[in-house]
Amino acid sequence: MTMKVLVIGGGGREHAIARALSLSEEVILLSVMAKRNPGIASLSSDVLIEKETSIPSVLKFAVSRGADYAVIGPEAPLEAGIVDRLEERGIPCVGPTLKAALLETDKAFCREMMQRHGIPGCPHYRTFYSSGDAIGFIRDYEGDLAIKPIGLTGGKGVRIMGEHMDREGAVAYVRSLGGNVVLEERLVGEEFTLQAFVDGKHIVPMPLVQDHKRAFEGDQGPNTGGMGAYSMPDHSLPFVTDADRGHAFDIMKEVVKVMESAGTPYRGVLYGQFMNTAEGPMVIEFNARFGDPEAMNVLSLLESDFGSIVTKIVSGSLSGNDVRFARKATVCKYLVPDGYPETPRTGEPLTFGTGTEALLYYANVEEKDGVFYTQTSRTLAFVGIGDSLNKAEESAEKAAKSVRGRVRHRSDIGTRALLEKRISHMKELR
Ligand code: AMP
Ligand code: GLY
Fold it and tell me: Which ligand 2 atom minimizes the distance to the CA of 226?
């Protein structure tokens, strides 16, 4: 039986969601996005160009087109309550309700929930709602701190004292935020992402991925939404032991259990970002959705029918048998406009090379008369897939290099050299 699935969002992550859904024979795709993503549009039977947070327009489109389900890509519509509103209209969603999405949209909620329920992996933290108190704490604190605005910041609001700034810089930053911050101990280690499908009760993990937040090679420069990511054929990472991975998954299981018993069951994709420290994995944050770029890594490997995963999530009957990923490596590289993230060069035309095998996911790109132009955000991504990390990296790199125009990418993502650096960093810590 066919099912109409509405995908909300227009970035690289949503292109990956749309592609994976489109491989399902039963799925007819509908989409809503603020700007036309040529990749998603070409897979969709009907498209609404509209801000994802314009709830009345999205509802009208979903109902009039007969959407059976919705999959929500970005966090902004979750925070605007899109799931509650769609479900009121009888359209079940892969994505949490407003209350369950607080895990991401309110960093203070997340930490308090972890602490109250004794969920492991919670760093020492304090929440502040006044500059004076937060600044007093910073001045007295021995050691380094992570400074996090309480609300959503598109992955760009966190600053690390001792890395991006000194103590006085931290004070000035907190003042500029009006004092609404979570301050927490600075964790040292290697980061990894664990995403999972959750149906309210059951949780099924996806392969581990490592993202690269910094703009430039060698992890230099400002934080971005993520410049690219890789995953390994064994679905783990070489600096993460089986025990680490098990602990990280246990933490996420606990979160799902707590949300269920609080009467706000979590349904959708739960994204755990962990710092693997000398003592094991600690939670940097949870997101209430797929990661971007991480969605492109894992969904490019999905062998099971995504449409049927959607129905199982919605009916609360998901099991590990429903979800299978190819045992291959992936390397995702984003092309971004020159000057990104601070002063991106927009409206620059791109030309594509030929003879590349990597999957192409469009993100923030404008198509006019068959020519693609850069916009302000990440432009497009290539995902190389291979039996080894090396092969996947070569494939992604070749494709990324073949694009001509005022764009750049991180050539070091997925390389052996960078991997060795991660492994030796972990060895130093342990
Ligand atoms: P977030 O926006 O929470 O993903 O944070 C952005 C980045 O800040 C993360 O990818 C980490 O690199 C860093 N970060 C966040 N919290 C901490 C922490 N407690 N200790 C060290 N680094 C952190
Ligand atoms: N890649 C990080 C995020 O999606 O938040």
Answer: 1
104 near 153, Cβ under 8 Å? no
- Give me the pLDDT at residue 239, please: 98
- All structural domains of the chain: 3-94 (3.40.50.20), 125-185 (3.30.1490), 188-322 (3.30.470.20), 329-429 (3.90.600.10)
Residue nearest to atom 9 of ligand 1 (CA): 284
pTM of the model: 0.96
User: What is the Å distance from ligand 1's center to 58 Cα?
Assistant: 33
**pLDDT score at 47:** 98
Å from CA of 209 to ligand 2 middle: 11
- Continuous segment of H or E residues that includes residue 115: helix 107-116
Q: Is a pLDDT exceeding 90 seen at residue 384?
A: yes
Residue whose structure tokens are 């699935």: 5
Number of neighbours of residue 169 by Cβ within 10 angstroms: 13
Q: How many A from CA of 330 to the centre of ligand 2?
A: 17
297 Cβ inside 6 Å of ligand 2: no
